[in-house]
């Protein structure tokens, strides 16, 4: 059948539509970010993403409005990537109110936050007041996790935290240390006290916890948060001049040293969550990339540790 030529007016309309097509095109659909790997909290079975967000130093920005806005942007990217656990302490300067400001600004986007804070005061009688001040800074109804910071006055604080938990004012109880300090005392507490969480330093160079604390956490059903994954940035600075080995990408999907280090940490069977701290959205996204994709097996973990120790 012979097609009739288009009417001149129709041809003009088609030409106009062709010219307008780029402007009328729908915006590309944003690619969904891979869901982060989850691990269970042994005491309840609740799962949380293997990467959280620390706030030591990076969120201690005082009243600087621009810096506070930058922290809120980091939190926004963190939640967008599926993150939940944010960790802070009264020791961390203005970090608590900065987190609270970010949570308030983000509103429903931050509703999934797993609020983890600490009690850090020498007098046990002053613990409840400090906890309440911290809660007001965050602007949350209650904390998900409270930890005795660096074992300070733990004999007084732990019973208070257990009472809060029994009353429904707290979900989980823990205790923390850092930089390899007081591991022997931490072990004694783990053996004698009912704990949901411990927090300690762990990375490819700081592996003392592998000998006794991490196996004990598995035995006792205690979740483990790994702090100082980058040795406060020193580890990544040392690795910056080194070339990332090709197998890190082909076998584990890593495009940065940060991803490789974090995958080493969170792939340990006893580690529940690592909490890298950053004030840069780009670094946050790079860190969160380590929460998904293939995780190193035991042989690959040995390879990563040996590689980094030799550099």
Description:
With about 300 residues, the protein is of the alpha/beta class. It contains 12 helices and 9 strands. A 7-stranded parallel beta sheet has the order 3-4-5-6-7-8-9. It has a two-stranded antiparallel sheet with strand order 1-2. Strand 7, helix 7 and strand 8 form a beta-alpha-beta unit. Helix 2 crosses helix 3 and helix 2 packs parallel to helix 11. The protein starts with 7 loop residues before the first helix and ends with a helix.
Quick overview of this protein structure:
The chain is α/β, with parallel strands linked by helices and 311 residues long. Helices cover 42% and strands 13% of the residues. The chain contains twelve helices and nine strands.
Distance between the termini: 76 Å
Q: Could you tell me the mean pLDDT?
A: 92
* Percent of residues in β-strands: 5-15%
Shape: globular
Low-confidence stretches: 1-6, 13-31
Largest sheet: 7 strands, parallel
If strands are numbered along the chain, what order do they take across the biggest sheet?
3-4-5-6-7-8-9
Task: Name the helix and strand elements from N-terminus to C-terminus, one letter apiece.
Answer: HEEHEHEHEHEHEHEHHHEHH
C-alpha-based Rg, rounded: 24 Å
Roughly how much helix do the residues carry, as a percent range? 40-55%
- Total beta strand runs: 9
Which structural class best describes the helix and strand composition? alpha/beta
Q: What is the count of helical runs?
A: 12
This entry's quaternary arrangement is: single chain
